[in-house]
Amino acid sequence: MMRLIKILIVLLIIGGIFGGGGYSGYRYMKARNQPSWRTAAVTKGTIKESVNATGEVKPVLRVTVGSFVSGPIADLFVDFNDRVEKDQILARVDPRLYQAAVGRDRAGLATQQAEVQRVKALLQQARNEEARLVKLREASPDFVSDTETDQATFNRMSLEAQLTVAEANVEQAKANLENSETNLAYTDIRAPVAGIVIDRKIDDGQTIAAQFQTPELFVLAPDMDQRIHIYASVDEADIGLVRRAQAEVRPVTFTVDAYPDELFSGSIYQVRLSSEENQNVITYPVIVEAPNQDLKLLPGMTATLSFQIQELNDVLRIPNAALRFYPEKAWVHPDDQKILAGIEEDNNQDLEGIKQSAEDRSASEAKRKQRHVWYADGPLLRARPVKIGVSDSRYSTLVEGDLEEGMLLVTARDTSPAARAQ
């Protein structure tokens, strides 16, 4: 009997040892499988809502300089990047043919002017002769016949008509001379405006043919060292916000690849009403004007722009990562697990949004502002409903919700080696 009791005591001791070890092991495994969470705090600060777009840097005005006359380029006086003044000679077409045409038309004008003088002399002679015949006829009607009188009269009238033709020929010769002189003047290619030569499309000796179409010789950019334009394409979903920003004279900031660490600023110059469609995406051109005294912004650069829509100061901000967090059901408090089912249902409805009516889509957009954030309450996560407002790249404003500054919200499960070692 005593032996049986001893055996039972030994078994109880062994069972206690294994039972205690098993419970400790259970507690150890449970603690080891307990996830660690990455958190971010609710803070107070500034939120700037903005619309992002890309655009191309272009001069405010591009003036293309062509040639009205044809011929080889005899002289080239400017090069790329040169600054030119208005009416400055940029190049010269070989003027010899046009100088010869001027000489020819001057001679033609002199000939026609001499012809006028000759006809005037003959006309005066005819008038004198007619006057003498009239006097003789008045002295003796039988002394001068009607035929002689008519001949003198019609000769004078004929010479008057010839004088009119000769004077018209003089005007025509003057017009021809003026045309030739103008063509000669056009051999000097002049700058129509002051600016910078951003493109030169000819070389010395190159022949240009203007009789078919006006050749482009230079491209000038006036005031490029004062201001520049950025042509941005804004999505139709954002154009309303950009127009509001224009009305409120909100600033625009942008960067270019050439100076990635430098922030440029400008203003909305124009929101154009002409839409553009590319692969079923509708965009609107928005022109941004920016200063360019240092000439860092060059034509053709790609700019990444941010249109500031509004700015809110000293507001409670929720980290956007906390709004995107979606926990696993196993780590959610039972009282909040029904929220996960509601989120899944909303996601399924979003997939069928194309079938919704306009009223339903409007209600869905308003519902998107109603969100849930999660915080750690012991080993499980609890949810708090919130309503968000303006957002930027990192934060969203808290419009409604029981959150306080400094409250830690879960943003992700911490899978770092340090977290796994705990």
Structure description:
The protein folds into 3 domains: 117 residues, no CATH class; 105 residues, Elongation Factor Tu (Ef-tu), domain 3, CATH 2.40.30.170; 81 residues, Helix Hairpins (Orthogonal Bundle), CATH 1.10.287. The strands form 4 sheets. Strands 2-11-15-13-12-16 form a 6-stranded antiparallel beta barrel. Helix content is 38%, strand content 36%. The two termini are 51 Å apart. It is of the alpha+beta class and 422 residues long. The chain is rod-shaped and about 190 Å long. About 2% of the residues have low confidence. A hairpin with a 2-residue loop joins strand 14 and strand 15.
Question: What's this model, at a glance?
Answer:
By secondary structure, the protein is an alpha+beta fold. It is built from 8 helices and 20 strands.
Task: Provide keyphrases for this structure.
422 residues, alpha+beta, Elongation Factor Tu (Ef-tu), domain 3, Helix Hairpins, 3 domains, 6-stranded antiparallel barrel, 4-stranded antiparallel β-sheet, 8 helices, 20 strands, 38% helix
Principal-axes geometry comes out as rod-shaped
Number of strands: 20
What's the helix-strand series? HEEEEEEHHEEEEEHEEEEEHHHEEEEH
Helix-strand makeup class: alpha+beta
Radius of gyration: 46 Å
Number of domains: 3
Strand content: 35-45%
Provide the residue-averaged pLDDT: 86
* Distance separating the two termini: 51 Å
Q: Sheet bearing the most strands, described?
A: 6 strands, antiparallel, barrel
> Helicity, in percent?
25-40%
The helix count comes to 8
Low-pLDDT parts are 25-31
| Assembly context of the chains | single chain
Strand order in the sheet with the most strands: 2-11-15-13-12-16
